[in-house]
Design brief:
Distance between the termini: 22 Å
Number of helices: 2
Oligomer: single chain
Structural class: alpha+beta
């Protein structure tokens, strides 16, 4: 089974789509880094849902290293998910 991961720029609507075997921290860290490299412009912010596969120390370290602001959805705030 494969899962599709889509990253979309809110302003330009540029999309990068990839697939991963499992949705877990181990697989996603490398995949997210590769996806960010495919955008033809500098990424300033990263907005994710609240899953532990996205909200963890390794992801925070990666985004800090790349100087990317990390935001996430608020629990039980479905309006936030429009950006996820």
């Amino acid at each position: 089974m494969l899962y599709h991961i889509t990253a979309v720029d809110c302003v330009t609507q540029w999309q990068v789509v990839t697939r991963v075997q499992t949705i877990c921290e181990v697989h996603l860290l490398w995949v997210i880094e590769q996806m960010m490299a495919q955008f033809p412009f500098e990424i300033l912010g990263f907005h994710s849902d609240n899953g532990s596969e996205y909200v963890n120390h390794r992801m925070a370290q990666l985004l800090q290293k790349l100087h990317i602001e990390f935001t996430r959805s608020r629990p039980r705030s479905s309006n936030d998910n429009a950006l996820v």
